[in-house]
Predict the structure.
Amino acid sequence: MKLAFSTLGVPGLPVAEVVRLAAGHGYQGVELRTHPEEPVHLGLTPLERASVVEEFKNGGVEVLTLAGYVRIAAEGDDEPVLAELAGLVELARDLGAANVRVFPGGGGQEPAEADATAARRLGAAAPHAADMGVRILLETHDSHRAGADVARVVGTVGHGQIGAIWDIMHTWLAGEEPVASHAVLAPHLGYVQVKDIASAEDTAPLALGDGVLPLRACLDTLDADSWVCWEYEKRWHPGAPELPGLLAGAREYLLRLGAPKQ
């Protein structure tokens, strides 16, 4: 198992410090939240992009994903959505990131309409992503919370550069069993996002293993060399404990859960 964490857990932390945290705690990768309030965003100059690459190279840590905020099924014109996505894909290429994360964002549309919009836009973006050597991954989230929802869209696109992120909280909230989520997402799966919460009503982040999410059942479905990323939502819950103090314990916990069964 290859482990990463999301910088959603360390809001605004400079890239050099993020790399030191990952390398110092045995994480092979980082999911970089890509947003104007973060050190990594679409406005980075070529020199700043090169600096990010150098920091990760020197630390021996991979940039797993740029976690952007494109809502691929949102109502409105395609052009601004595709333009933002193209910028993310190009930034990912420049930073050496394998993936770009997108959200569904279908809102209150009929599912068939949201599906069609998302599939059309992802299909349009796929050739450019292929040229850049970057994969676009649709996360189980908001309007497409279940694995079956995301698999329906990604399967319609039918392109190798379009895949899925399995956020286990959202599939659990959708009432989908881990084996069912994995069964539909496996052909498209980029990696898994893990987290833990107290209940469906209280989704403040907890240390892994301290909540109710079926972490073991999810990890049991994965291949041994799968990427697993801890998304600790400190940005949305500023009163939550600081992530750095939890990283070592989380790594041990995940490796223990993912160890081969005797």
